[in-house]
Design a protein that fits this description.
Elements: E1 29-34, H1 49-56, E2 76-78, H2 89-105, E3 109-114, H3 118-130, E4 136-139, H4 159-166, E5 170-175, H5 180-189, E6 193-195, H6 196-204, H7 221-231, E7 272-274
Parallel strand pairs: 1-2, 1-3, 4-5, 4-7, 5-6
Length: 275
């Protein structure tokens, strides 16, 4: 078989790494595909996301120009896909939670690929138990702060409401749509929320200070401090800038982290939830 290696397609793992760099035992990072889309609100198809991302990652450069490092040398293992529990969203959340918890206990830094937004709840629950100071950065078009959606507490539309139950420190970026009760909750809890329209208006005006975009209620001190923490200062250049050499630490050591660090938060996957 070795004679055929040059003529066969590489392994379908993240970044198509060789066996040494993808070995589970030496890998610091584990990619967890969860091809579940049982609670999507519009149409199915996000189940294809994990494998599509993994396949596309073949085209990534192994060297990161912003970090000036080759992160793959930490070792990146791609786990087999989590088996889907059809028709039981709560059981699916529990399964993702258990898989994530096991990997954290093994000292791995976990990157979960969905799937619909429900996948994030299980991963966040597991990380919140291990990291009490966890914060979650949500990049999304929708707030997903409903307490229930069509009678279901576990849904793609309720993911951030369930997140608040285990991790009260969240920030939402890029929001363009939310219900009136969700808007009231944002004001009541003074959640840092950056609306897409306001971010766009700031860019058109030539400004980059996103603190103008945060929705606030009567008190501005909390959200202003949070938004400044995320959106100012130089971008981190090394794991030490995130608070140490352990990749799963989510809070930057410095209170000043630039908006460009949103692009380079590959070292803090537990903090991220994308649309």
């Amino acid at each position: 078989m070795q004679r055929l290696d040059d003529m066969l397609a590489p392994e379908r793992n993240f970044m198509q790494l060789d066996a040494y760099d993808a070995d589970f035992e030496r890998a610091r990072v584990v990619v967890v595909p969860v091809p579940f889309d049982g609670t999507t609100c519009y149409r199915p198809g996000t189940r294809e996301g994990p494998q599509a991302i993994i396949d596309a990652s073949r085209n990534l450069e192994l060297y990161d120009a912003e970090l000036r490092r080759a992160p793959y040398r930490l070792g990146i293992h791609t786990l087999r896909a989590v088996e889907i529990v059809n028709g039981d969203a709560a059981a699916m959340v529990e399964r993702v939670d258990r898989v994530t918890d096991h990997l954290i206990e093994a000292g791995k830094w976990v990157l979960t690929l969905g799937g619909d937004h429900l996948v994030a709840i299980g991963a966040i629950q597991a990380h919140a138990r291990h990291y009490p100071a966890l914060s979650v950065l949500q990049l999304d078009a929708h707030a997903d702060l409903r307490d229930e959606y069509e009678g279901a507490r576990y849904s793609a539309a309720t993911v951030m409401r369930r997140t608040l139950e285990v991790c009260p420190s969240i920030a939402q970026v890029g929001i363009r749509s939310l219900s009136e009760p969700e808007a009231e909750l944002v004001e009541e809890r003074e959640l840092p929320q950056f609306l897409a329209a306001e971010i766009h208006a700031e860019r058109l005006a030539g400004r980059r200070d996103w603190t103008r975009c945060a929705m606030r209620s009567t008190s501005r001190s909390t959200s202003t401090a949070l938004t400044r923490r995320w959106c100012q200062g130089p971008a981190p250049r090394s794991p030490a800038d995130w608070g140490g050499t352990t990749p799963s630490r989510c809070s930057p050591k410095s209170p000043r982290a630039s908006a460009s660090s949103v692009r380079t938060w590959w070292s803090s996957p537990p903090c991220w939830k994308g649309t």
